[in-house]
Design a protein that fits this description.
The structure holds two protein chains of two kinds. By secondary structure, chain A is of the alpha/beta class. Chain A is built from 14 helices and eleven strands. In chain A, the strands form three sheets. Chain A has a five-stranded parallel β-sheet, with helices on one face. In chain A, strands 9-8-10-11 form a four-stranded parallel β-sheet, with helices on both faces. Chain A is globular. The two termini of chain A are 22 Å apart. Chain B is α/β, with parallel strands linked by helices. In chain B, the strands form two sheets. A four-stranded parallel β-sheet of chain B has the order 2-1-3-6. Chain B is globular, with a radius of gyration of 17 Å. The two termini of chain B are 24 Å apart. The chains are: A alpha/beta, B alpha/beta.
């Protein structure tokens, strides 16, 4: 009986193989469905023209939601939703896709649903007796084989005039907040900063105004006419979708060579469940001190995995801050010296070089083992509960 | 080739041998037909690392697998054109260092016989070696081998499998004709060189220059 692969994002080999290995023997007893989360999100709704078949193909989230309904027939459903569950364009903390899964679980209250997910802490939203959640690791596991052969940027330009990196490709509200804070607090001088959505900044105008915070509105106004030091084209993946290793090797590594700290604007921010991605991974391969702005508790999650978060150097207390605006302020203000004092930061970086390499060892191997064994243990526990 | 008219809800996986013009078109066919679209595994690692059948069996037990093979002289021409594109676009791909790209002739006569860069295979590896291996003396082979030159016919088992009457046709006839119009590009020395290197494919699939 079938396993249905509704859609796969690029570079999901690790997640898909793990999912397939765990569930393939249960195809007679359960409906098994794997799909990319974007297919369920109304934000990405579109209708795609197929040049091959010369007709419009429906790809709206309603199409996929209906399809899932059509595929669910058995009493047990094993569903894998790969990638983030965020819309990221407002202060709304409950993503639309989470609302969908919630309604679906309620609708199928007579069925048992095993949900494999790329996000952590999904339990914060979904707590149903018939729903079993298994996290399988975020997009940080994408392109596993390529990342495992990637060389870290450990030889830096100690004469560089820049200190920190802030990369901002896809427009998300929290990235606009981060940039507005950097410029509003005049912390930009030593920054190597990109803002690939500069022409669309006005889309966030009302959200920034609504905070009523002066440094944010000042910073936001500076962004609009700013000449950013990094002017990458949005087409940073010339050969295949989301080829982050290619981008790292041929583009980002030059930025990492000239910086020592990174302010990472992760994919998740406002919501309680979070996805760790290549943005975090690149920061470690780039051997920069990490200031990672992601959902609450994500720094603690990495620390518990065994990653050295440089707690003796970076003040990560912002990780516990629930207010999204205050959190960014706290992250930047409490680490201001790292972002501005050239001698201090470069000296610290040189003294702690070995620690970056130790983290790389973890990211090359242990992180995959961790995600695999956690998902396997969880699945077996749930399997024993359901099938007994 | 084995015909299977029964849709048993198997999953399918394509073994991607480098230098196959029509492989992406086949993937597209699967994706755009509802009967087959949910049955196809797209494992990006296969595109990046050209994983072979033997490794695939350990990763995807019980999945039906297929591969595309093509005339070695046309295939070598296509690979050369691809490498020249990379060179022209100044893409610093490590693969370029393994080839002599002064001319088509020097490229063919110096075709690498050892793995290039971090790739696991040598460019001289016969196509068949991607699609079969021996285990305890028994030959193990992918479920479907599609000869690019005979694609309409060789594709029929898929149509039958999925009860789909939409036949497959070459996606880019202009490029297809260009790479198959290779006779004048080869000297007899070059022709012979490829013949020796890909003897296994030529014998198995009865390719002629």
């Amino acid at each position: 009986m079938p396993i249905s692969i509704i859609s796969q994002p690029p570079n999901d080999s690790f997640s898909f193989r793990l999912f397939y290995k765990l569930v393939k023997d249960y195809a007679d007893e359960a409906d098994i469905i794997y799909l990319w989360s974007l297919m369920l999100d109304p934000k990405w709704e579109s209708v795609k023209w197929s040049p091959v078949f010369e007709k419009f193909l429906p790809v709206s989230e309603l199409h996929y939601r209906k399809l899932i309904k059509k595929l669910i027939k058995k009493d047990i459903v094993i569903l894998c939703i790969k990638d983030h569950l965020t819309s990221g364009d407002s202060y709304n903390t409950i993503p639309k896709t989470v609302e969908y899964v919630s309604s679906m679980t309620e609708f199928y209250s007579d069925k048992k649903i095993i949900l494999f997910t790329s996000v952590e802490n999904l339990e914060a939203y979904l707590n149903f007796p018939n729903l079993y959640i298994i996290p399988i690791g975020g997009d940080i596991t994408n392109q596993q084989s390529e990342y495992q052969t990637l060389s870290p940027v450990i030889d830096k330009n100690l004469n560089s005039s820049t200190l920190f990196l802030s990369l901002n490709r896809l427009q998300r509200l929290h990235r606009t907040l981060i940039l507005s804070t950097i410029y509003g607090l005049d912390l930009n001088e030593k920054g190597l900063i990109s803002c690939m959505f500069q022409k669309d900044l006005d889309k966030n105008f009302h959200e920034i105004q609504s905070t009523g915070v002066e440094y944010l509105t000042n910073g936001f106004n500076k962004l609009k006419n700013n000449n950013f030091k990094i002017n990458d084209n949005e087409q940073i993946y010339p050969f295949k979708g989301n080829d982050n290793v290619f981008n790292f090797k041929y583009k980002l590594s030059n930025y990492y060579k000239n910086t020592f700290v990174e302010i990472v604007g992760e994919t998740s921010y406002f919501e309680k469940c979070f996805l760790l991605t290549e943005k975090t991974l690149n920061c470690f391969y780039g051997c920069n001190f990490p200031i990672i702005l992601c959902s609450q508790g994500s720094i603690n999650f990495l620390r518990n995995l065994g990653v050295d978060m440089f707690d003796d150097i970076i003040d990560h207390s912002y990780d516990n801050e629930p207010d999204p605006v205050k959190k960014i302020y706290s992250a930047l203000k409490s680490n201001e010296r790292l972002l501005t004092d050239e001698h201090y930061t470069k000296n610290l970086w040189a003294l702690n070089k070995d620690r970056f390499l130790k983290n790389i060892e973890f990211f090359k191997k242990d992180i995959y083992l961790y995600y695999e064994s956690r998902a396997t243990d969880e699945f077996f526990k749930i399997r024993d509960k359901i099938w007994n | 080739m084995e015909l299977n008219y029964e849709n048993d809800f198997s999953l399918f996986l394509g073994i991607r041998i480098p230098g196959q013009l029509e492989f992406p078109g086949i993937i597209e066919w699967f994706q755009y037909h509802e009967e087959s679209s949910y049955r196809l595994i797209i494992d990006s690692d296969y595109y990046e690392n050209n994983i072979d059948f033997q490794t695939s069996k350990s990763l995807y037990e019980d999945v039906k697998m297929f591969g595309v093979v093509s005339n070695p002289w046309a295939r070598v021409k296509l690979i050369y054109m691809g490498l020249m594109d990379l060179k022209t676009n100044n893409v610093n791909e490590e693969i370029l260092n393994g080839f002599v790209l002064d001319s088509f002739e020097s490229c063919v006569l110096n075709w690498p016989t050892v793995p290039v860069g971090s790739y696991w295979y040598a460019p001289s590896m016969p196509q068949l070696d991607w699609l079969q291996y021996k285990e305890n003396g028994n030959l193990q082979q992918v479920d479907y081998i599609i000869r690019q030159e005979n694609i309409e016919e060789d594709f029929k088992p898929f149509q039958n499998y999925f009860f789909n009457n939409k036949s497959y046709s070459i996606k880019n006839p202009q490029l297809y004709n260009k790479i198959y119009d290779y006779k004048n590009d080869y000297s007899s020395q070059m022709k012979f060189h490829i013949e020796k290197m890909f003897e296994k494919d030529i014998d198995t699939f009865k390719y002629v220059f």
